[in-house]
């Protein structure tokens, strides 16, 4: 079985060496590491060239013009030749048994076409942050929802940095649609969820780096609110604490309605429920406001 890693880079010099070293130090080595750089000028290309000179399994492509995240990852995936493809971010750190445990997961779950894992959150110097996992940050209610249904109706919870999938030529040949709210990891997640072949591995198999402008400190309450919001959408319960939340729910539902592989029938039902509930709710709020104003 041939194993491939697909990584895209852009201005990633600060943390790239730690990630490259972690991939090269796996308990089960990968056979090829494909890296596509999207026009870096910060020394990223020089770092990659030095690694490629020492490790023949590393193949590089330096884009002449900036393609953007989605198109760059698409070309990178198409350059792979492995039977199992691992996606990698330029600034994370893989734990030494990430590949080994992912392959074990596939062996124990033979119907799975793709699997994504959880991760610890680390800061710029590699220290674990706040005791929160990646799934806490993105509001994924693991164990409380049916994964394929949640992915196709509520929100994408597949993070590319933790994703691996069995080679699928149909998927690789398809062009990822250029749509708001859809990145390559969401596209892959929806594709396999639609086939009921998407699985989640709760093990933390890598360290997801949070940069200074992505700090999660002080946002624990916000993340709990996101989890509650996602569960409410999943359960079909109208979220009506205030107009802003209702509006956010409607925006999410309409965005999901346009994405490929979504369960459009169920989403449309939710939109109609929210619209009717919202109409009644805000009419009652308006009547209450006028009543209070009249008696003052």
TrEMBL record:
Coiled coil: none annotated. Residues 4-134 form the Glycosyltransferase 2-like domain. It comes from the Bacteria. The keyword DNA repair does not apply. Its EC number is 2.4.-.-. InterPro entries: Glyco_trans_2-like (IPR001173), Glycosyltransf_2 (IPR050834), Nucleotide-diphossugar_trans (IPR029044). Keywords: Glycosyltransferase, Transferase. GO terms for molecular function: glycosyltransferase activity. This is Glycosyltransferase. It comes from Aquirufa esocilacus.
């Amino acid at each position: 079985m041939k194993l491939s890693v697909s990584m895209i880079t852009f201005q990633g010099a600060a943390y790239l060496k730690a990630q490259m070293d972690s991939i090269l130090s796996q308990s089960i080595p990968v056979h090829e590491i494909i890296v596509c750089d999207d026009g870096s000028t910060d020394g990223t290309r020089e770092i990659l060239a030095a690694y490629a000179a020492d490790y023949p399994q590393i193949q590089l492509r330096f884009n002449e013009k900036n393609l953007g995240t989605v198109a760059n990852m698409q070309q990178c995936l198409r350059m792979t030749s492995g039977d199992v493809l691992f996606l990698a971010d330029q600034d994370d750190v893989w734990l030494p048994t990430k590949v080994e445990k992912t392959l074990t997961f596939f062996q124990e779950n033979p119907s799975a076409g793709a699997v994504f894992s959880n991760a610890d959150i680390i800061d710029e110097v590699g220290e674990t942050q706040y005791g929160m996992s990646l799934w806490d940050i993105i509001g994924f209610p693991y164990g409380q929802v049916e994964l394929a249904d949640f992915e196709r109706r509520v929100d994408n919870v597949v993070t590319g940095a933790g994703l691996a999938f069995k080679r699928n030529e149909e998927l690789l040949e398809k062009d990822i649609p250029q749509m708001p709210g859809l990145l390559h990891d969401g596209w892959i997640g929806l594709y396999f969820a639609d086939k009921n072949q998407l699985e989640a591995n709760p093990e933390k198999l890598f360290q997801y780096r949070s940069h200074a402008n992505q700090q999660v400190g002080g946002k624990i309450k916000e993340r709990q609110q996101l989890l509650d919001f996602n569960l409410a959408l999943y359960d079909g319960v109208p979220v009506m604490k205030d107009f802003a939340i209702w509006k956010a729910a409607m925006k999410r539902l309409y965005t999901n309605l346009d994405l490929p592989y979504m369960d459009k029938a169920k989403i449309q039902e939710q939109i109609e429920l929210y619209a009717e509930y919202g109409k009644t709710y805000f009419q009652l709020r308006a009547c209450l406001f006028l009543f209070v104003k009249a008696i003052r």
